[in-house]
Amino acid sequence: MPYIMELAYLCRMRLSEVTDFTDSDALEQGLLIRRRKGSKDNIVAWSPKLRTLWDNAICKRTDILSKKKQPLISKANLRHVFISEKTGDKLQVSSVKTAKNRIDHAATALAKEMEIEYTHFYFHDLKRKGVSDTSGNKLEASGHRSESMLKVYDVKPALVDEAGK
Predict the structure, then answer these.
(1) Looking at the domain assignment, is residue 161 inside a domain?
(2) Among 48, 83, 118, 134, who pairs with 141 as Cys (CB 3.0-4.6 Å)?
């Protein structure tokens, strides 16, 4: 789960886009992000952090297949990076949502016990935050086709001058 969430943030992806990752998406220059919902595909350039996350996700998949005594699929475009620990099949969006709900319930209970506030978030908030934290071209980074689609993604407050200036 941590690899999925951090990749979603770094690559500004929807959950379904992350679970669709295959080995064929790892290109020499970076990760090919195959967008959904009419957005434009893009490539997120490798950084040391992104490369480490990707490599760790591949190692996790290898461990799962090894424990299940299952072979690695020969075609790169059919080799999903995120697979179920129970079956070895492609990880389903619903499974990730279920796991995230369990985390939310546990975090909510712990926050209540510690008398602190817990703020629930949706998986898509990782994409919103990733777009918001992008210092370059946010439209290209998000894969959106228009500025109007991008408006809901910038969650950072605007810096403005005081009144009277």
Answers:
(1) no
(2) 134
Q: What is the DSSP string of the chain?
A: -HHHHHHHHHHT--HHHHHT-BGGGB-SSEEEE---TTPPPEEEEP-HHHHHHHHHHHHHHHHHHHHHT-PPPSSGGG-BSSB-TTT-SBPPHHHHHHHHHHHHHHHHHHHHHHT-------THHHHHHHHHT--S-HHHHHT-SSHHHHGGG--SPPP-PPTT-
Domain count, the chain: 1
pTM, rounded to two decimals: 0.82
- Do 140 and 148 contact (CB within 8 A), yes or no? no
Q: What is the pLDDT of residues 4-36, one digit of tens each?
A: 999 999 999 999 999 999 999 999 999 999 998
Cα 147 from Cα 45, distance rounded (Å):
23
